[in-house]
Design goal:
Layout: H1 3-19, H2 24-27, E1 37-38, E2 47-53, E3 65-68, E4 83-84, E5 90-94, E6 104-108, E7 116-117, E8 127-128, E9 132-133, E10 144-149, E11 151-152, E12 173-180, E13 190-197, E14 211-215, H3 233-242, E15 250-254, H4 261-265, H5 282-300, E16 310-315, H6 317-328, E17 335-339, E18 344-345, E19 350-351, H7 352-358, E20 365-371, H8 386-400, E21 405-411, H9 418-433
Parallel strand pairs: 2-10, 14-15, 14-16, 16-17, 17-20, 20-21
Antiparallel strand pairs: 1-9, 2-5, 3-6, 4-5, 6-8, 7-11, 12-13, 13-15, 18-19
Helix pairs in contact: 3-9, 7-8
Length: 436
């Protein structure tokens, strides 16, 4: 039976449990116990979410989806589609440990063009699940959380990237630069690059600048609605340049393409085939970055050419992509910023440590950062085995030592999030663009 069928069956059973309130397990619970409030994500038995679509915009052909950091904010993930109920509402049954603690999320109708809004059609903040009272639950009983969606976006605004990126609220000078295409499903689409210019750029018309191309560009300079936080890359870079700790450089934020993010960033496996149900298109993404993105930036801004002045970076899957891009094209990317990269997916035929070890040519500088508390339940990347991935990062650093300049940062109490990446960012920038 498929994962989706299993979840559908679990949903039916949960409905029956809520209807037959005199079932033995429920009858044995102490319904008069003092309240005991907990985060539902922490419950080993899981929990049930029931959603009322007040505007009745969802349908069998356009169901409601759950998007969060647990599925890379994929607005149309088939593994997180809600099931219709006989009472007109929608339901999903979360397994224990399926989500990270205090997860942020939103509901969609399969695309960010159809994300939930307030009753007036205006954007809302990311949701959090409310705490639940488990004092009156029988052993193993799943609590039920009821939520309401007043309205979904109509999808006819005609925007290129999500409206939460407009207007920009950033430190310094950030320009938008529209580019076409991308890898996989993103081919034929449009997106806006976010180009951050260093202090003094406009006062030095004859000067060219090094450049850092960063993946997941949506959350570098400000917090978008579709991500839990930002890197604060604009404030950090500006402060470090003004302090003289790094030379002035340009940052190009390359937004991911939403539903096809996994396809864009994950390298192909040695065995071929799909990863997490997605076809890897990292080769195509590297080609698009070099063929479409870089020439577009170089025509619009004063870029210093050459691999020693060109960096590629990212975090999580974006960090894995940055490493892969530098393996494939060290003649283009001589600087790498890889935060929390997924190096050891060898259970599906992907081992980037081996890719680097077998590479004949390497970039000149590689920054590797990771936290010691990067557990992401059911992510497929770290899933409660952070030590193993720390060992992989250390092994990669050892493989590179002597063949490239390497800086390795491992901070034991930091997690897999923008806050941790922002804290380590000064070390990365100083290593890549300073004397460090």
């Amino acid at each position: 039976m498929s994962t989706q069928a299993n979840r559908a069956l679990a949903g039916v059973l949960a409905c029956l449990a809520t209807l037959f309130t005199l079932a033995p397990s429920v009858a044995m619970a102490d319904r008069g116990a003092a309240p005991k409030m907990v985060r539902p994500e922490s419950l080993p038995q899981g929990f049930v979410v029931i959603v009322e679509d007040q505007a009745k915009m969802a349908s069998a052909s356009r169901p409601i989806y759950f998007a969060s950091g647990a599925n890379s904010w994929n607005p149309g993930d088939a593994d997180y589609v809600l099931s219709p109920r006989s009472d007109g509402r929608w339901q999903y049954v979360f397994k224990g440990g399926e989500l990270g603690e205090n997860v942020e999320f939103k509901f969609t109708l399969g695309s960010w063009k159809y994300v939930e809004t307030d009753p007036q059609g205006q954007d809302i903040n990311n949701r959090h699940f409310p705490a639940v009272d488990i004092a009156g639950l029988a052993g193993g009983e799943q609590p039920v959380i009821e939520l309401t969606v007043p309205k979904f976006r109509e999808g006819n605004e005609g925007f290129i990237i999500d409206p939460e990126y407009r207007p920009l609220d950033v430190t310094g000078n950030v320009r938008r630069l529209q580019v076409a295409g991308g890898a996989g499903l993103a081919n034929g689409t449009m997106r806006d690059l976010l180009v951050w210019l260093p202090p003094g750029y406009g006062d030095n018309p004859d000067r060219a600048y090094p450049v850092l191309y960063m993946m997941d560009g949506q959350n570098l300079f400000q917090k978008p609605e579709t991500a839990p936080a930002e890197w604060h890359m604009d404030e950090i870079a500006q402060r470090m340049i003004q302090q003289g700790r790094v030379e002035p450089f340009i940052i190009v934020g390359v937004p991911h393409a939403g539903e096809s993010r996994t396809e864009e960033y994950i390298p192909p496996t040695s065995a071929g085939g799909q990863i997490f149900g997605k076809t890897p298109h990292a080769d195509e993404q590297v080609d698009w970055l070099i063929r479409e993105v870089m020439p577009r930036v170089e025509r619009a801004f004063r870029i210093e050419a050459g691999p020693d002045h060109t960096g590629v970076g990212g975090s999580s899957a974006g960090g894995a992509f940055a490493l892969y891009a530098a393996i494939e094209r060290p003649d283009v990317f001589g600087l790498v910023l890889a935060e929390s990269p997924a190096l050891q997916l060898d259970m599906i035929g992907l081992d980037e440590v081996k890719m680097y070890a077998d590479a004949s040519t390497l970039p000149s500088k590689v920054y590797l950062g990771m936290g010691g508390a990067e557990d992401i339940p059911n992510s497929g990347f770290y899933s409660k085995d952070t030590r193993r991935h720390i060992d992989a990062v250390k092994k990669l650093a050892d493989e590179l030592e002597g063949r490239a300049k390497v800086r390795l940062e491992i901070v034991e109490n930091q997690g897999h999030n923008e806050l941790a990446w922002a804290k380590r960012l000064p070390f990365a920038l100083e290593f890549l663009f300073g004397d460090g």
